[in-house]
Design the sequence.
């Protein structure tokens, strides 16, 4: 019984460590600081009250106004399901929004 408990504990510890490493690696792949990404989500949430024109116009304007080259972020957003402003808000925020 003790061996099973120890084995389960080691397995849980290994799983936790692997999850933390994966999360750290994912965060390192972000094209901008997560706080700025969260600010983008907040901005889009407010700006999309009138609907989405199915472009990345608002996202591009936000990035440019914050000194971020949109071309360095847009491909990453697309890879995470953000092909227009509302998809950035719904798809990308689902994975990368505030905890």
Sequence:
């Amino acid at each position: 019984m003790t061996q099973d408990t120890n084995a389960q504990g080691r397995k849980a510890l290994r799983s936790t460590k692997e999850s933390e490493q994966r999360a750290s690696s994912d965060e390192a792949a972000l094209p901008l600081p997560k706080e700025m990404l969260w600010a983008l989500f907040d901005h889009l949430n407010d700006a999309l009250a009138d609907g989405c024109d199915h472009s990345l116009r608002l996202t591009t304007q936000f990035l440019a106004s914050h000194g971020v080259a949109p071309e360095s972020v847009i491909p990453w957003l697309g890879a995470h399901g953000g092909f227009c402003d509302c998809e950035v808000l719904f798809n990308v925020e689902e994975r990368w929004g505030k905890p």
Observations:
- The longest helix spans residues 2-28.
